Amino acid sequence: MTPPFSTEQFLSVFGLYNNAIWPGQILLNALGILAIILCCRPNVNSVLISAFLAGLWFWTGIVYHIVFFSSITPAAFIFGGFCLLQGALFTYFGVIRHELSFGYRPGLKGITGAVLLVYALVVYPVLGYFLGHVYPYGPTFGAPCPATIFTFGLLLWTTSRVHGYLVTIPFIWSLVGSSAALNLGIREDIGLLISGILGTALLTLPDGLWGRSTGSQTAERALK
């Protein structure tokens, strides 16, 4: 998909966005790290983690898309609307109905989730820097692409069933966002495409396709 704006226009939006919200990037990163720490604690506060994910998508929809990205394309209002819907879904299923439970468990999902979380918070900005997207003219955590990668990472750390509703919008954005961004030379977004395909497959296809998890094998050995 070829976007209706130039790379220079696209990166200039990040310049305006990052300068306007500073030091909000530090707070967003701190909250992301806190969500990871909470997932690793014995008594996981899943409601708080769900609330953070909801807030992350509300932020992306309102602050990035509607306030800033809309200056170069009216499609930003549509993208922002879908982000608000995603935030509402996390609020409904995770905060109100308590149907999301988080917690790190060893195995394919746990390891993949960890890789995506590290990519979103650490590798993504570092890779962007070496690819020439020097701050403030580059995506920071809280922008749609790293936020989507982070979301897949946390969802892979769920211990409960994840409704397909919660995966649909992040998966669609992983295709739309990575296609447009890669056409603009934002090569760090190859991680967005990988996270969308791999994360959606691991979350929606039967666990049996991926073999038994480490946790299941450990439990099985304990019973013998």
What does this protein look like?
This protein is mainly alpha-helical. The protein has one domain (7-203). The protein is built from nine helices and no strands. The protein has helices spanning 7-21, 24-39, 46-68, 75-96, 108-130, 144-155, 164-183, 190-204, 214-223. Helix 2 (24-39) packs antiparallel against helix 3 (46-68), helix 5 runs antiparallel to helix 6 (144-155) and helix 5 runs antiparallel to helix 8 (190-204). The termini are far apart. Residues 212-224 have low confidence and may be disordered.
Which class do the helix and strand fractions yield?
mainly alpha
Instruction: Please mark out the parts with pLDDT under 50 across 5 or more consecutive residues, or reply none.
Output: 212-224
- In which range does the helix fraction lie? 55-70%
Beta strands, count: 0
**N-to-C CA distance:** 54 Å
On the 0 to 100 scale, the average pLDDT is 91
